[in-house]
Structure formats: C-alpha cells, structure tokens
Amino acid sequence: MEKSAKIFIAGHLGLVGSAIKRRLEAEGYTNLILRTLDELDLTNQQAVRDFFAAEQPQYVFLAAAKVGGIRANNVYSAQFIYENLMIESNIIHSSWEQKVKKLLFLGSSCIYPKLAPQPLKEDCLLTGLLEPTNEAYAIAKIAGIKLCQMYRKQYGCNFISVMPTNLYGPGDTYHPEDSHVIPALIRRFHEAKMQGLAEVVCWGTGSPRREFLYVDDLAHACYTLMHTYNEAEHVNIGTGADQTIKEIAEMIAETTGFKGSISWDSSKPDGTPQKLLDMSKLHSLGWRHKTELKEGLKIAYEDFLKRYP
Fold first, then answer.
1. Which ranges of the chain does DSSP label H, i.e. alpha helix?
2. 119 preceded by cis ω (within 30°)?
3. 136 and which of 77, 120, 259, 260 could share a cystine (Cβ 3.0–4.6 Å)?
4. Total-model pTM
5. What is the distance between the alpha carbons of residues 135 and 142, in angstroms, rounded to a whole number?
6. What angle is formed at CA 20 by the lines to CA 14 and CA 26, rounded to 5 degrees?
7. Which helix H or strand E contains 61, and what residues bound it?
8. Are 10 and 61 in contact (CB under 8 A)?
9. What is the pLDDT of residue 76?
10. Distance CA 111, CA 140 (A)
11. Do 113 and 132 meet the contact criterion of CB atoms below 8 Å apart?
C-alpha cells in the first residue's frame, strides 16, 4: 500500500478497527477514510454504494461487525446474522464495483466446527457442526470468507480473509453481560474489588480452553498480510497457546487486585470446549505475536480505568 493511498477502515471505532487505525498512522499513512455509524449505515446497501462511488477507496480493511460475548450471541442471534451479512455483503460488493485494489476481511475463530481437531487448521472449515451458542455469528463470518473467495474466483478481486482468535486490549467493550470474556471479567473483578465483595461468580465450569491475542498484535498481522498475502484461503491469526477460563479469571483477579474467592455457575453454558488456532501458516510467513497475556491484561486494565473512571 502506497503511503498516499486512500484506505477505508470500516469499523474504525471498534476494538479491531481502532487498532488497525493506530498501526496505519504509526506507519505513516494519512489518507484514511473513516465514518461513524451516524455518518454511514453499513447495513444500508444504497448508502454504502454511494459512499464507495464518492470516495473511491483503494484499500479496505473490513473490521466492522456486530459482536458480543456468549450471552449476546444467544440473545441477539437474529441481529448478529442479519447485520453481519449485510455489512460484509455491501462492502465487498461495492469494493468490486469500484475496483478496490485489495480488501482484507476480518472473521473470527468461531467459524470452525465445535469438535474439530485441535489446534484448528484453516482447512477444517465446514467439516462439522458449529457451536450452537454462536452459530449465527459464525455463519455470517463463513459467508464473508466465501464472498471474498467467490469475488476472487469470478472477477479476479484481490480480497483476502483473516481469522483472529479471541481478542482483547484498548478500545474493548466492557459490558458486564454482553461483552467478551476478558473485558467482562475485568469489569466484574474491578467492581467487586471496589465494592469489597468476598466472591465473584463466573459463568460455566471454568474448564474450556481459550487463546487470546492482544489487539495491536492483530493489527500488525493484518498490516503485514495486506502487504504480503494474496491467496484465496483464509489465514489464522493467534498466539498458538491457550489457557483455561479458570486460569484467565485468576490472572484477571490478580491484575485488578481482587483478593476474594472465585466460584463457578455450572448452570451457565461453557461454549466450545477448546478453540486453539494452528499458527503454522502465518508463522511460515514470518509473523509472530509480541505481547504476552499478562502484559496485555495490564494494558487492558489501564485502558478500562481511563475510560471508566
């Protein structure tokens, strides 16, 4: 990407989009096209087509999405599948119409079958049933991958897809029920500490294993792939290591300074037993993560304290 290129970051205020914006600005890119939800409704096909026709972006980072944790995926499943399908369809189609040079679509590791062999290789996509609690979101993201592949196949578009693992870091959403596990636990343990509570109750059994990637490391991977990767198959982005949710909770309790006990409500769903990405492909391209979990959690907690004093 030329330093003067017009680059549209869809979803620049979200966790992922804001990290991509930070990376591009750090690399000297100044011609960034940004729109808030109030300025551009990405689920509105005509609005998106008009925007692309007027702005003529050369590169697109498709980071906009309807996202949430296990509860939100369950409760708002229709919204999750509808809004994500509309966002990606509108942007990918308009990118083809306006001859965008390259597009990077961000999916999620939840696209893989619930009981797929671990670690999850890119080629295990569509080989089994999905985890029911995030099926709507997963199907929408699988459709986004296929859109990129089919526009490449039929029209020769250089549209690529990346599948990040669970993310956390500055700019996260800290809703106590609808956010992802790390921000939800950061808020819960912080509030318990401030209220002097003796116990925090967490969802599930604590036994599922999860991999977590610091969001600025993801942004660096996306930046790297935008320069170097031009193939149809999607690329996993993660750390190649995981921990149990119980271990994560204990680390967050320590990070926030919560001194009480942690108990587990096994009546609540656990989700997929394990979700570890195989990183062979991205490692072979020369990229590895830099931020380890303990360091990243400290930065995330500092971000929480700044944003929610």
1. 15-26, 45-55, 70-75, 77-97, 135-155, 181-195, 215-228, 245-256, 280-284, 293-307
2. yes
3. 77
4. 0.94
5. 10
6. 130
7. strand 59-62
8. yes
9. 85
10. 9
11. no
At residue 271, the pLDDT reads 78
> Would you say 37 and 11 are in contact if contact means Cβ atoms under 8 Å apart?
no
Residue type, 128: G
Short-list 220, 226, 240, 241, CA closest to 287: 220
Q: What is the pLDDT of residue 175?
A: 79
Q: 98: buried, middle or exposed (CB in 10 Å: 19+, 13-18, 0-12)?
A: middle
pLDDT in tens, 237-263: 999 999 999 999 999 999 999 999 999
How far, in Å, CA of 304 to CA of 26, rounded?
A: 23
Sheet holding 59-62, edge to edge: 32-33, 7-10, 59-62, 102-106, 159-164, 235-237
The H-or-E segment that residue 264 falls in is strand 261-265
Confidence of residue 116 (pLDDT cuts 50, 70, 90): very high
pLDDT in tens, 187-212: 999 999 999 999 999 989 999 999 99
CA neighbor of 237 nearest in space, from 144, 157, 167: 167
Task: List C-alpha distances in Å: 104 to 7, 50, 64, 109, 280.
Answer: 11, 21, 11, 16, 20
Catalytic residues: 137
| Alpha-carbon dihedral sign for residues 38, 42, 43, 45 | positive
- What 3-state DSSP class applies to 308? coil
